[in-house]
Automatic annotation (TrEMBL):
Transmembrane segments: none
Protein name (record): ABC-F family ATP-binding cassette domain-containing protein
Lineage: Bacteria, Bacillati, Actinomycetota, Actinomycetes, Micrococcales
Pfam families in UniProt: ABC_tran, ABC_tran_Xtn
PANTHER family, alphabetized: ABC TRANSPORTER ATP-BINDING SUBUNIT, ABC TRANSPORTER DOMAIN-CONTAINING PROTEIN
The organism of origin for this protein: Amnibacterium soli
Entry-linked InterPro entries: AAA+_ATPase, ABC_tran_Xtn, ABC_transporter-like_ATP-bd, ABC_transporter-like_CS, ABCF_ATPase, P-loop_NTPase
Keywords annotated in UniProt: ATP-binding, Coiled coil, Nucleotide-binding
Source organism superkingdom: Bacteria
Coiled coil regions, renumbered to chain: 522-581
Amino acid sequence: MTVVAHLVGAERIRLETPTRVILDELSLGLESGDRIGVVGRNGEGKSTLLGILAGTRVPDDGRVTRRGGVTMGVLDQEDRLGPGTVLDAVVGHREEHEWAGDRRVREVLSGLLHGLDPMADLESLSGGQRRRVALAALLTTDHDVLLLDEPTNHLDIEGVRWLAAHLNARWAAGQGALITVSHDRWFLDAVCTRMWEVHDRTVDQFEGGYAAYVLQRVERDRQARSMEERRQNLLRKELAWLRRGAPARTSKPKFRIEAANELIEDVPPPRNSVELHGMAAARLGKDVVDLIDASAGYDGTPILEHVEWRIAPGERTGILGRNGAGKSTLLALVDGTLAPSGGKVKTGKTVRVRRLTQQLDELADVQGDRVLDVIGRLRTSYSVGDAELAPGQLLERLGFPSQQLSTRVGELSGGWKRRLQLLLVLLDAPNVLILDEPTNDLDTDMLTAMEDVLDTFPGTLIVVSHDRYLIERVTDQQYAVAGGRLRHLPGGVDEYLRLEDAEIAVVPDAPVRSAGLSGAERRDLEKQLSALDRRMQRLASQTQADHDALATHDQSDYVGLEAIAGRIRQREAEREDLELEWLDAAERLEQS
């Protein structure tokens, strides 16, 4: 029997700044076995809360208690690395035979510092590399409690997956404790069993991971009627996405499936792909950007070689790859800021490309201007679905409060600058939108709002991100950049991770050829794909009819309702099997 022990507690905490109260009369506790994710809007006090629990921030009132003998490891936003090498920071002064024989040290070095020279001087590293070293140093030591503030920053998709697996296996069930602040929703769902939402000087607590938190928050808001309809609809839309099959749940949330279905039964899919494709084709024409046997590099060093990629109007594509693999080089070829060293890049005559950069370039010349003045110089409206929104309304949809409109751009926080940058890019009316790591400095509410706006973008969308949730949420197909080549991933992020695990060389996409398959075998595969498509469409129609029947059936007829629900479950299981069969056939056809 697992004994739950109190580890850390906060009693009637109050903390204020000269301008506002951050936390007030806050009491909460951390028990052994807790795995807690902390979310909330930027500036609400998430990092402050971690600092108070860690003892690095002293509250104005109240107290923090800690059980005797409890050890605590902290990763905060400060860079605390001293002089020395990467290896010095991670293993300290331990002899090589000591740390080399330590399985945890070997796993951390491989999982977090892959490709980084262990003898590199710390002063020569970038900020992101130093952050990874600090996390590695923390994880090689033993602690009862880990407090991690944005641990997934500067990690690629493989690194985030490794970190989730490490934390899940770090302690036995019911032992140790974790509190993590993160905007990576996939990571939160993979690791956490409870959620804390910091808002309005207090903390609301929820059972389950991020998916369960979204459901409970929607239900709370619906019952209380305390939040405006716009935010509630955004959350219901995200819940619909989660319930329709967002991947990688480590455990099923502990809430009633019936309640979830009731909440989302009238929520449409996140976007109408057919309609958006038609609108994009009308704006772009047939030709967008074609990379034909394109190669590129810098200072004579090749980065990409023989890339074949024909981008179609209305495509929504996610680009995956390790840091330094060539993703930014690929984007530079697409947006025309880099000429190919071999092959060619053809751009359609009506194409208007805009790129949301990581450097906030769009704001460089307006630091002293007020937000309202900046947006007033641009277009007077922006189309979102069937609605025409004024720039101020679009700002509101992106979470900008009206009081921020009079703030000077240079005085905005990183998150608010990111929102304004996205607005300026959208108001410039591109028909090809490139987002290069767009999640930096954004909280989960802002990410949800951004995804809602992107759902109605009527053009071609290309997203490079290490945020798995974002990639799977806003794009319909994924490609991998590795070994200087580009490869389509019919199986999405899961296929990419399998390729990385197996260390399979990524080969470029190429026109379909018959190599490896006879003509008859190819025709059989094409027929199989066509038949599978028809069966999945038929199943979708039948499932929708069952859902309609469920909604109109006599709600007191429990036997009849269960029979309909059983048919729905059976059809969903069949659909999943067909999708796996389709992916297998498509991959065989593509690789031939």
